[in-house]
Amino acid sequence: MSGILVPCHRCGRQVDSSVVREGRCLDCRVEVALADLRAEHRRLWRKRDRYRVRGAPIEAISRQLARLEERMATRILDLVPDREAAMRQLERTLEQTRIERYEIGRP
Ligand SMILES: [Zn+2]
Fold first, then answer.
1. What pTM does this model have?
2. How far is the CA of 93 from the centre of ligand 1 (A)?
3. According to a count of CB atoms within 10 Å of the terminal CB, is the N or C end of the chain lower?
4. Which alpha helices (DSSP H) does 16-80 contain, by range?
């Protein structure tokens, strides 16, 4: 920690300058980098909900979701070398995805 606080250009939070890259804090960099995988996760999740309602088999979609979560973890580990911090970012990403599922795509 360098102790110098700078504002993140994306979310405006004051963060330690050592974690800022291209003006963005770590949380924002992870959000931007994972945006497409989160969208894919939401799409698959809704598809699985539709299948479940119809009584169709969902095992294949569940496997796809599990693989997608592994890809999320891999991508985060590329961005966040510290394993513990990376795991926190993964939990955060999955939590955001859960929240988005209920906010977006409601009929
Ligand atoms: Zn930020």
1. 0.84
2. 14
3. C
4. 26-54, 59-79
